[in-house]
Structures are given as structure tokens and as C-alpha cells.
Design a protein that fits this description.
The protein is about 25% helix and about 20% strand. It is α/β, with parallel strands linked by helices and about 525 residues long. A hairpin with a 2-residue loop joins strand 11 and strand 12. It is globular and about 70 Å long.
Length: about 525
Amino acid sequence: MDQFDVIVIGGGSAGSAVAGRLSEDGTRRVCLLEAGGTNDNFRIKTPGLLVALPKQANWAFETEPMEGLNGRRGYQPRGKGLGGSSAINAMLYVRGNAWDYDNWAALGCTGWAYDDVLPYFRKAENNARGVDAFHGDSGPLSVSDQHWPSPASRAFIEASAQLQLPRNPDFNGAKQDGFGLYQVTQRNGERWSAARAYVEPGRSRPNLSVRTGVVVEKILIENGRAVGVAVRRGGQRDELRASGGVVLSAGAFGSPQILMLSGIGPAAHLQEKGIPVVRDCPAVGADLQDHCDFILSYEAKSSDLMGGSLAGMWRMGKALIEYIRHRTGTMTTPFAEAGGFWTLDPASPAPDIQYHFIPGIVQNHGRDTVREHGFSVHACVLRPDSRGWVRLHSADPFAAPAINPNFLADDRDLVLLRKAARLMQRICEAPALAAYAPKDRNPIDYNDDAVLDAAIRGSADTIYHPVGTCRMGADHGAVVDPRLKARGIDGLWAADASIMPRLVSGNTNAPSIMIGERAADFIKAALA
């Protein structure tokens, strides 16, 4: 039986940061467990091969039918392997709005206001622009500008400006509002996942054991304390012990699943699945929040735009050769190159809509090849009122969890997304994009509420930002306290997007890494 000081479950965005920081001074024996592989391959490291990622790097979950989406099931890709979703995402470096974190503090999460978390964002960051009041330049996470964006992405920004929507060169700076190019987690043209930032530099440390292909069956809890984990690897069962404790970083779906498999969760649900109840905690798996996304797609004949035609494939082939030789050019694209944040509800305390512009047509989450050239614009509701859940299908740790984001269950989200779609359509008709002579692939009357609502409910889905299923809070119903310690269980912490009490106003990778950074400091203090 192997013995460690700390065991970290999950090598994703937060888990990589936790394991890297806890092991860097050499004083603790740290074991990082990851169900997937190493993700150390060319397809994952090449940004432009995002649509051709290896299947083994993606959990590729499917949701339960959602009433708000006319009973449709949604798709929920999640990263599998070291780096987690930072190994398969669009690499956008977005922190959310300062108001989000001040709101967390107002909800009782003491120590999580914007002024509290900003130093950790800066600590994590190695921004190519250099250091300033908002950014760091000496952290492990490389953040870069895009050097070869499509002219169409710049046209999207210009089209927004033609509607008097301001430009914003830094969505993580003094203000979030406006439109511009996203910064990305890349270094020298390659994807820079959390594992490359935090785990790979420490692989030679004798006190860091990184184990891939390991499925956690449950957390071992004795006398109210987490003392280790039961695992399966290649058909073999084993137990690993942790004298200091266990950190759960398996993500918004995996973390509540593992807690429930360990007997921590809604008692009635656990009993229904034949799992002995260790602690009745209804908040485990509850309060799932995600960004519901609606897409407008346009066909257009232009070499600026991606497409699956022979000419388009030839162009991408040449771009791949350039990338192999120099790590430059079109293959450095994150696809969602440009975007913006804007407020459509006057009562909103911060931007309530986010846009992503892709210089190509997206269909079925990029899983379908579209021969036509064109562009796509996404709109999502940043702080949804709809709430979903994660539960168990069975007590089998190899079974996928039951996931229901419950998109558009609250009509307020639909009303806001309707407004966002109308502004999005106006941007696409502004002169800068109209110059591409775009043709709407799904033309409707955007002024007809019923018609637009039907289009939204008929096609909207996730833009991959699930959070909240092991929420942090000061109340006794919360899963973890503001120092990320599990309530009612000693020696157990959670650190990933699942602990967010409210979804941030933007992409969730950077905030998850920040959470991992903070968790490492909390755990160091607790074990001192």
C-alpha cells in the first residue's frame, strides 16, 4: 500500500495547479491521479487540430433530455488526461468579471473578492505582454496574443465598432466590456495546458508521483476523515493512503460523482443506488450552472474563411506544413479568435452576454465536416438563472454520471438570449462583415419572438463551462467552506470549477487554474 502526504484526484486545470504547487518545494509526497493518459502528443499541442483531437482525450458526455431544449439531449465534452479540459479547449484566457468575485464574497465566500483573487491570477500568469497591475509575467501559465488571426475575425471587431460597440484590447484588464481578439494559453504557437504549466516541470521531482490510467472508485473515509482512495488501474484494485489528506479535482461532473460514490451526497439518492451514506449533503451534484450558447452560421465565398472544400483543405494542408516547420500561421488558431462582452439588461451589474466569432462554420460542436466556407457567431448568457444537476446512473465508477444542465428552464435566460441573438444578427449585417456577402444558413424572422425562441430552443447547447456542483459557501449546506475544505469531513478538499457558487462571466479555464493555485496555499497552511 503506497503512502503519501497528499493525493490529488484529477489532473485537469485545477488539479495540475494543486499538484504542481504542493510538490514544488520538495517537502510533501504528492500523488496525482488521472483517469486518462498523458496527452503528450502533436494533435493536442497543435491549436489548429482542435477539431481532430484524439477521442481518448475527451469524456464526450451526453446529457439527459432537457425540457427547455424541446427534450433534446446535449453534448458535454470534457478533457480526459493530463491537462483536463485545458488540453482540448479553445485556449481562451478569460477570467470573468471583477463583479463575479465580489459577488462570491457577498454570498459568504470570505476571501474570494476580486482583490483577493487577482494576485493569484497574476501569480499563475506568464503574459507575453509583460507585467502590469492586472497581469503577471513570471508564472507557469503562458498567455499569448494571437499573431495570425483571420482577417474575418478583425472584420467582426470592425463590424461591432460600426454599431458603436467599443473595442477592448484586454478583456482581463480595467474593464471587460467591448469587442476584440482573445488572448490564448499558448507558448511559441503551441497549446499550453495546465499540465504543461504545472505538472511537466515537476515530473522529475522524487516527491511527485503522477499516475495516469487510474480510475478512482471512492475516497476512503475513516472516523470522519479522508485517509486515502480506492483505485482501479488495468483491472487491478489498490488502495493509496494519504496522511495529510485528499484533494478532489475531477471537475464539475467528476467531483460530485466521486463524492457520491464515496457516500457523500443526497442520502435518498445514495440509498437508491445502494451506496452507504457517510454524510447527507444535498448540495453535492446540485446547482449545476453552464453557459447556454446559440449560434448563427453564414456561408460566404472567401479565402479568409475556413471550409471543407478541396481548396479549403489544401489551404489547411499548407498551413500544417508551415506549422510543423515554424510553429506559425493559421494552425495556431483557437478558432474562437474574436469576441466580446456586452450588457443587454440595464439592470445587470456587469456584461451579461458573451460573443465568440469563428472564421468557419461550426456544426454539431465541430464534429461534422462542413464543406461550405463561412463564419459562425456564438452568443451565450453569462450568468444564467437556470439550474441543473449531476447524479449517478449507477454505483459503477466506470459509468458516466447523469448530467442535466437544464438549459433555458428559466425564461429569463431565453429572453436575454433572444436579445443577444438580435444584436448578433445586426453585427453580421454591418458593413465590415456584409462585405463577405454572407448567406444565413438558417434564415428566420429575428423580429418574431415566437420564431426566434423556437430556433433557440431547437439548436442551443453548451459552450463548455459547467460549474457549481460542489459549491463553496459559508452556510452549512455548502459542500466546501471558503478555504475549500469539505464540510463534515476532515482531510478532504475540493478544488475545481465545481466549487464556484456562481458561474463567472466568461470562460472557466483561467478561473479553475486560479482556484487550484489558491487551494494549494490553503492546504499548505492546513498541513503546516
